[in-house]
Structures are given as structure tokens and as C-alpha cells.
Amino acid sequence: MPGQEKDFYRDTWVRYLGYANEVGEAFRSLVSVKVVRASYAVAFAYVLADTGDKSWKMLRKDGRFKNVLVETGDALIWQTLASVAIPGFVINRICAFTQNYLQKNVSKIPPKPRSLITVAVGLASIPIIVKPIDISVTMLMNLTYRRLVKA
């Protein structure tokens, strides 16, 4: 919207840092579990950075403890769902399905190329799932948490 401040954590390329764990999930079949866990650490650092940013802005804007706490909870829940939990699960399932499908139906492909195809499908899925998940989580938050805290 014109005149509305751009949210650094949600409206710029930085948003994709929240999807670091999806990259880890996509590569799960090729890398150590430590690499996958490290990708989750990057995603959670992003979640905490956005939560801190939203909390700090509310503290400067309003200063009331309750409002800061509500804003902190909103950002933390939204980011955890939209950046880590839901997309991590979705990419994990897409990759698992791809791997199983290739193994059962295209058995002529050796394991290493099958894993590379699985990674490619997982990575290609990330840009497709971002907006629908963000919108769905926003709707979920509007129907639950945001309604509850207004009461």
C-alpha cells in the first residue's frame, strides 16, 4: 500500500532466511543431519530477529507491557508457523513423496541421481509454497490468536 512502511523481515529478500530449513529439508537425502539442523538454526534466528524487531517497534510506539507482549507473541507464533513448522513439514513431505515415487516407479534411476532429483523438486517447491503459507498463517492468526487477544 502506498505510504505504508515496508517490513524488512516480511517484504524483502530477508523473508527467505526463514526458509533456510526448507533448503536443509530439500538436501536431507544428500547431507548430514547436522547440516539440516544448522538450517533450522538459521531459520529460528530469523524468527527471533523478526520477533525482536516487532517487539522493539511496539515498545517504542506504545510502551505498554501488555501490548508489547501481544505483539511479541503474534510475531513469534506467526513466524514459527509460517517460516519453520508448516513449510518444513511441507517440503519434507514433498521430498519424501518424490523419493518414494522415484524409487517405486522409476527404478532404473540409480540412488544418487534419484536424490539429486528429490533435492531439485524440493528446492523448486520453496518459491511456490511461500505466499500460500504466509496467507494461510495470517488467516489462521486472524481467526485465533488475534481474536483472542482483542477480547
Could you describe the largest sheet, including whether it forms a barrel? none
Distance between termini? 28 Å
Query: Which bin fits the share of residues in helices?
Result: over 70%
- Return the structural class: mainly alpha
Number of strands: 0
Order of helices and strands: HHHHH
SS summary, helix count: 5
Radius of gyration: 18 Å
| Unreliable runs | none
DSSP strand content:
under 5%
Tell me the overall shape: elongated
Number of domains: 1
What does the average pLDDT come to? 92
Organism: Vanessa tameamea (Kamehameha butterfly)
Protein name: Mitochondrial fission process protein 1
GO biological process, one term: mitochondrial fission
Keywords: Membrane, Transmembrane, Transmembrane helix
3D architecture notes:
Helix content is 77%, strand content 0%. The chain is mainly alpha-helical. Helix 1 packs antiparallel against helix 4 and helix 3 runs antiparallel to helix 4 (111-143).
